[in-house]
Amino acid sequence: MGFWSKHRRTILITTGVLGCGYALYRFYSWKKQITLDLDNDLFPSDQDSDKIIRDALQSHFKNIQGISETITLPHAMGNLRLRINKDFDLSPLLEKVQGQQLNKPLQMNEKLIIWDKIKILSFTKITTSVWAMVVTFLYVRVQVNILGRQLYMETAQGFLDSEEQDESGAFNRHAQKVFLETSDFLTKFGFTSLISKMEVATEHVLKNMKLTEYFNPAHLSQTIMEILGLFINNGKTDSWVNCVLPPNAAYYQNTPGMLSNRLNDPNTPGMLDQLLSEARNVLLSIDFRNIVQSTTRIVVDGLMDDLSMELNNTINFSDRHPLVKLLSRVAKLSDAVIEEVGVNKYIKRICSIPDVELFFTLLYTDIPQQTMSSLSESDKASTSSTSVS
């Protein structure tokens, strides 16, 4: 009791100091943990940042592909189907050669002339259908990937203030809408030129082929691919590209029927020119040309497989048969090629080609030099602003 009375004040002071010290230590640890957690949220590590960016990129890529497959592509394919059925109606020629429109039968030379027209149109129809379907599908994917990449890079820059973003977004949206509408350029403005160029290639390949010449699946496939190859590689490099997209924004302003009212904003034509230039560069690339050729080959091979199965039920298609007996079936092949997207097995087959997926993955992640320069300048501006402050 004497010890406690004698040292009571010292013990209480010491205990208080130790208690306060422990309390301060716990408070400091708590504050430090909160700060670390906040830093991790605001300034994640490089590894966490890479994962966030990678996940965001993957999610955005899937969203862009969803837009392509559910909106843009079905609309473009619907217009393509209408044009093919309108411009390649062979029924009047078939009825005429069969004598259904005449009171007197045709002379042999007249029949041969009509059959020759049917021959050219049948092969022009199937080659046009295959090429237009493939390129329409690939071009829609190209433009949507370009827009998705641009949107992602603009978001990543993050150097515009809110007012500038609002103004920029306004004219960007106009340019993007017009750019997406170029998916219909082929069927609205380039289709006549496409048919003309394809018909020239068809006439060149078939000029020495007689109606009595015997065909088998391999010969038929070879003929179709020869026509497509001649069309793609004939003339100037960009001859077929001009069928797919307009040369520049001025074309929209000067061509009746275009939605040029969206180009009234002075910034929009420049933005549209940039998008069209990017798309044209992609379509003119060797990689895109190779994808078109390999994809058309896969589609044609599938068509021949289906035709063989169909004809084996009626005739032995493994044998050779006169071309004249196959023309109507050749023309009818296009029906399956231009079916609606949801039931089009050839589009599904294209989607499953690894090289196609790789091509668009690389396209989406490729950053044009112009964008890199823009990012570099924004980084310099941000650094300069930070130094001044």
TrEMBL record:
<dbReference type="GO" id="GO:0045046">
    <property type="term" value="P:protein import into peroxisome membrane"/>
</dbReference>
<dbReference type="Pfam" id="PF04882">
    <property type="entry name" value="Peroxin-3"/>
</dbReference>
<protein>
    <recommendedName>
        <fullName>Peroxin-3</fullName>
    </recommendedName>
</protein>
<dbReference type="GO" id="GO:0030674">
    <property type="term" value="F:protein-macromolecule adaptor activity"/>
</dbReference>
<dbReference type="InterPro" id="IPR006966">
    <property type="entry name" value="Peroxin-3"/>
</dbReference>
<dbReference type="GO" id="GO:0005778">
    <property type="term" value="C:peroxisomal membrane"/>
</dbReference>
